[in-house]
Specification:
Number of domains: 2
Strand content: 25-35%
Strand order of the largest sheet: 4-2-1-3-5
Protein name: Bacteriophage T5 Orf172 DNA-binding domain-containing protein
Radius of gyration: 22 Å
InterPro entries: DUF4357, Phage_T5_Orf172_DNA-bd
Shape: elongated
Number of strands: 11
Order of helices and strands: EEHEHEHEHEEEHEEEHHH
Structural class: alpha+beta
């Protein structure tokens, strides 16, 4: 059973990655060359995950078969979700070579979170969105939210209606609110969670948060690429 390293790299082209293999003693020199010289006219390659496995030739061939429809002909480049490939490789039995400061379990968990976050974000453009709504018994709630790196960040200075509900997300329970004003940014993982931070109860954030043109986030949710 020949041992070798299977790796995945990002490229300067969004959505285009490289999956390759190398010998046990050649990883650093291979990464050095690719990161400085590029591959098949594609530059900006950066190592993202690498694992030493048994039967690495057969395993790389299997990956080629699995992702054949996403492969750039005659190359080791694929139009794939990087985090999906990291999830798969980190589930292999073997010695993780890169990154060296995290365990395979940590890498797998982080890649899973990123994929879920990206799925939740859909095609929402990064930027600032707004929520203006009257809450019965309180008045007008005015809030701003920034969408960035797959997160929905409720910005400090937003109005937060009081709430006596127990079933609220932890981010609302832990939010620093003084005189109904949010004192620091709150990071959420969905627009509805972000909405509950300021409204104080469950709401459909896809319809409540709006862009500069007063269009709801929902218009981006199923927008084709």
């Amino acid at each position: 059973m020949a041992k070798g390293i299977i790796y995945v790299m990002s490229t300067v082209v969004p959505g285009l990655i490289k999956i390759g293999k190398t010998g046990k003693n050649n990883f650093e020199s291979r990464m050095y060359n690719l990161e400085r010289n590029g591959y098949s006219n594609v530059t900006g390659l950066r190592r993202k995950f690498a694992i030493e496995v048994n039967d690495y030739d057969e395993k790389e061939a299997l990956l080629d078969d699995i992702f054949s429809k996403s492969r750039v002909p005659n190359t080791e480049l694929f139009a794939l979700d990087l985090d999906l490939v990291i999830q798969l490789l980190s589930s292999f039995e073997g010695l993780q070579i890169y990154p060296s400061m995290e365990t395979k379990e940590q890498v797998f968990t982080e890649a899973t979170k990123k994929r879920r976050s990206n799925e939740e974000c859909g095609n929402i453009p990064e930027g600032t969105y707004f929520l203006n709504r009257k809450v019965k018994g309180f008045g007008l709630v005015k809030a701003a939210m920034e969408v960035k790196d797959g997160n929905f960040i409720v910005l400090k200075g937003s109005t937060c209606a009081p709430s006596d509900q127990d079933r609220l997300p932890e981010c609302r329970k832990n939010a620093q609110i003084k005189n109904n004003i949010l004192q620091q940014n709150v990071i959420c993982h969905s627009p509805s969670t972000a909405g509950s931070v300021v409204i104080g109860k469950a709401i459909n954030g896809w319809k409540e948060w709006k862009d500069q043109s007063r269009q709801p986030l929902d218009i981006y949710r199923f927008k084709p690429d």
